Amino acid sequence: MTRIRLEKAQRLLKLNREMQKLEEEKLASARGQQAELREEQDNLIDTLSGVSDMQALPTPMVLQRLRKLEDRQRALEVEITARSTSLRTVATRAKFSERLTKEYELQHKRAVEEKALHEVIERVLRKSDASLP
């Protein structure tokens, strides 16, 4: 019975770790997109200030693009916040699964050792049969 519990806890732990890894990848992707947006915004701001070589772009187009980037930036911030919260939740579940698995491993080990001990005691206490070598 402890073996079954242990196997279920191990499967749950594996699933939670995979979910945590997936959430970490999604969060990293969103942060990467955010960094790219910031870089593009900086380039457009340099264009407006006359520092960049892209001065050929009309100012209204640059401003429109900056607004779109700002909107996308806000959406990414919301997504990053949601992903961070989700990651914390999944990590908490994974940590709980780890503790549960360790507890079940210990219980299973004790049960196996107790069974082995009972078998040894049973053999020692059993009367020996004279006809058997």
Task: Walk me through what this model shows.
The protein has a single domain (2-125), classed as Orthogonal Bundle (Helix Hairpins), CATH 1.10.287. Helix content is 86%, strand content 0%. The chain has helices at residues 2-49, 59-125. Helix 1 (2-49) packs antiparallel against helix 2. The protein is rod-shaped and about 105 Å long. It starts with a helix and ends in an 8-residue tail after the last helix. The model has no long low-confidence stretch (mean pLDDT 89).
Keywords:
Helix Hairpins, single chain, mainly alpha
What is the compact description of this entry?
This is Flagellar FliJ protein. By secondary structure, the protein is mostly helical. Helix content is 86%, strand content 0%.
CATH class: Mainly Alpha
**Contiguous helical run count:** 2
Return the CATH topology: Helix Hairpins
Provide the gyration radius in Å: 31 Å
N- to C-terminal distance: 36 Å
Average pLDDT score:
89
Can you write the helix and strand succession as a string?
HH
* DSSP, total strands: 0
Largest sheet: none
Whole-number count of domains: 1
Q: Residue ranges: pLDDT <50 for 5 or more in a row?
A: none
Structural class: mainly alpha
Shape: rod-shaped
Helix content: over 70%
Strand content: under 5%
Query: Based on the structure given, which CATH architecture is correct?
Result: Orthogonal Bundle
Protein name: Flagellar FliJ protein
Coiled coil: 5-47
Keywords: Coiled coil
Organism: Hyphomicrobium sulfonivorans
